[in-house]
Amino acid sequence: MTRVLDRSGVVLGIAALVLNEGATDDNAREVIAAAVDAGVLALDTARAYARLDDDGVGERLAAEGRALRPGLPIITKAGHYRAAANAWNSDGSAERLRADAARSVELLGRPLDLLLLHRADRVDDLEESVAALAALREEGLARAVGLSNASADLIDRALAVAPIDAVQNRLGLGVDSFAEYHRCREAGLDFFGYAPFGGPRAAPLATRVPHVAALATERGTSVHRLTLAAVLAVLPGYWPVIGSTRAESARDAIGAMTEAVDDELREALLGDLASRGVPV
């Protein structure tokens, strides 16, 4: 298995910077620049992070971010594309994945650090998709490959076809199960968890991790920053993918990478998650 990132830390997802109502390229550049300056470990984008008149905007913004710190890893995804204002289609065929990978290489300016099948849960033939990803890795278009939005069963099916390197799934703290994370740990796969704070429809983070929130108040920091710091300490092989849309929130979240973590904080997070019925 190829290690995608060489240390623990935070990844910035670009989806909201492109797809949210009212999103602008200028704001996206400001947030990405702030994240790069704060020490973000990687940027996360996709072919699907597009506009109807610009199929490459999400990857182009990521490439601009890497220009601020040459060598910054970029994660991208294939096999899912914008078909209308509020509609996306999935196509995991070998032909589509090869075309998407070629377009991503064109936009990002070099072979891909990590290429994921975007909607592993929606393709017609997962085995064909995984074989195609493995071929792209063998040919050097991608250094590492994997799945996104994959159940433990889909992960096992993929591994039966060819080695994969990583999985990216939603993992809202206090909301989602850690089953796929644990399956990835067993298989030696890197796990990237998007929407770590639960997404816009989830209850406020402080209500889901009340003991961590109390410590954040005592320590004069944000509950988001302290929660991420604790997560990085207690979940090896897990990289949270944040969806910040403001420069200041990106800096705050990425600051978790240098936040001190003690036993009190670890126990607070573990207890909060267990009380929600989703223990680590």
Automatic annotation (TrEMBL):
Gene3D superfamilies: NADP-dependent oxidoreductase domain. InterPro entries: Aldo-Keto_reductase, NAD(P)_OxRdtase_dom_sf, NADP_OxRdtase_dom. Keywords: Oxidoreductase. GO terms for cellular component: cytoplasm. The keyword Oxidoreductase applies. Pfam families: Aldo_ket_red (PF00248). Residues 12-264 form the NADP-dependent oxidoreductase domain. GO terms for molecular function: oxidoreductase activity. This is Aryl-alcohol dehydrogenase-like predicted oxidoreductase. It comes from Microcella frigidaquae.
